[in-house]
Amino acid sequence: MTSAPNTSPRPASRLKRIRDSDIWFSFTRSWITMIAAVIALVLVASAIFAPWIAPNDPFDPATLSLLDGSKPPVWAAEGEWRFPLGTDQQGRCVFSSILFGMRISIIVGFAGVLLAATIGITLGLIAGYLGGAADSIIMRVADVQLTFPAILIALLIDGTTRALFGNQRSETTIFWVLVISIGLSFWVQYARTVRGSTMVERNKEYVQAARLIGLSKPVILFRHVLPNVTGPVLVIATINLALAVITEATLSFLGVGLPPTQPSLGTLIQIGNEFLFSGEWWVVIFPGIALASLVLSVNLLGDWLRDALNPRLR
């Protein structure tokens, strides 16, 4: 006797589930969000593949020539195709400098947001789950933290490293000064959001069951509670990435950022600002456009993600 064929429906593929999701529908319905996603993807990809895309290496002294300095963009009368967006006074290609500088800005922004999220999520889970004195101490520290802007924190950390290392600070040290400054400035938002969500989750049945079977508090927090509070964290991280890039650019413009030998977008704008009134407008305008495009596109994606994950707006 032959068995009946299995007529149960096959599970949908992951790609089909994504296409049928509310988030994908919300994404494809907004043309502004799609344009922002394309711009952000192009800028991030250009920064990642800068060594292969850039026509010149702006950080290799052997390839620089002062005779190529202050050349205008290619569409101007004295422009050259070797330098599509012109050069600065040292002969560095502005287009290549933007690609390499944007990569540094994005790396600093990602590292700063990752540090802030790690600190904030950990403290938020502890405060929301334990409550009591631990909650009071962490939240009071968060209140104090809100009184210190990122620029002031960066200046304090920068001054401390200068006192410890003097003028012998390496580029790695300066990089971590920026990352720690951004991380210590943005962790409060994560902590408060995660704390509120954890206070709701800790009274649910799955947490009570995990306690009954004897799981430790770190296991309950990071294996069971954390996956249920990540939605708001993703929104905060996306928006904070744009703020982190802006903060890094501001600090670099003030002279606290990386040296001119490894400039970010903020450093490029600082350098170009010195020659703006001499007629070399392209040295500062194009890095500024790149910075504004990156921040605006990421902000638009963050706003869309916040609305897409809000069940009240579905």
UniProtKB/TrEMBL annotation:
For the keyword Transmembrane, the answer is: yes
Q: Report keywords, A-Z.
A: Cell membrane, Membrane, Transmembrane, Transmembrane helix, Transport
One family from Pfam that matches here is OppC_N
| GO biological process per UniProt | transmembrane transport
- Its domain of life reads Bacteria
Q: Where is the ABC transmembrane type-1 domain?
A: 102-302
Give the protein family.
Belongs to the binding-protein-dependent transport system permease family.
- PANTHER family noted in UniProt: ABC TRANSPORTER PERMEASE PROTEIN (PTHR43386:SF26), OLIGOPEPTIDE TRANSPORT SYSTEM PERMEASE PROTEIN APPC (PTHR43386)
Q: What is this protein identified as?
A: ABC transporter permease
| Naturally occurring in which organism (per UniProt) | Phreatobacter aquaticus
The root-end lineage is: Bacteria, Pseudomonadati, Pseudomonadota, Alphaproteobacteria, Hyphomicrobiales
